[in-house]
Write a structure and sequence with these properties.
alpha+beta, three-stranded antiparallel beta sheet, 8 helices, Rec A Protein, domain 2, 274 residues
Amino acid sequence: MATKAQAEEIVEVAPPKVSTKVEKKEPAKTSWEIKDRIYFLKTKDNPLTLTIPSKHTKKHALLWFDSENKKQRELRYATNQDSPIVDEQNGEVTMGHIVFHNGELRVPKEKKNLQQLLSLYHPLRDRIYYEFSAIAVANTDLDELEIEIDALNAARTIEIDHAEAILRVEKGSMVDTMSSREVKRDLLLFAKADPKMFLSLIQDENVQLRNIAIKAQEAGVIILSQDQRTFTWGSNNRKLMNVPFDENPYSAFAAFLKTDEGVEIYKSIDKKLK
């Protein structure tokens, strides 16, 4: 065993050097597709001409908030400038007008400054006009076609009683005089004409109950008062329920048939109809 105490060496490790140099980040460049563009007004009745502001004034502010620099930047359409942003323009400017004819404005790819003003910066974008997009139109068309296919497939496989209940929403008591093939035909036409409404009715659990209520009223099993506020039994005029204010009477009766009291009444109505 050594008799001499060994000296301990303390080694200090210098902390790693931290670079104080700040790297400058280049601003993200927005990709811009060079192509002809079309803009449409969102109004139903398009005027022959409509002019929208092309420069900033007290009456019509034409400003764009630059979130990167956190400041408002003035806009204007100058036909002899490359940018629609005023502080990026140089020298004398030649002002241009922005005019829609019969609800549309076609801007060729050579007028990049006007396209960018309309597509990126103008405060009226998507408020009174929008840029036509073939992709967006295709997506909308595809969605609508898929909904129509879903509705037609559902109409083909639905049970006849359920079909009558849905069709009664459209045709009322006329359904009672139709053959099963006429019902299926008209159901398919309904699904094709208004697929969203058709699919919503299929998923509405009250449709068949409303159908029962209408059939019962037509058969005299129950009676709806002239003011459409009260349902009574047709046999003894005993009150079944009061219709809440501002509710469709048959929708209200369908909801009533799902209550504890209504279940027994439903059984009785179903028995009388059969």
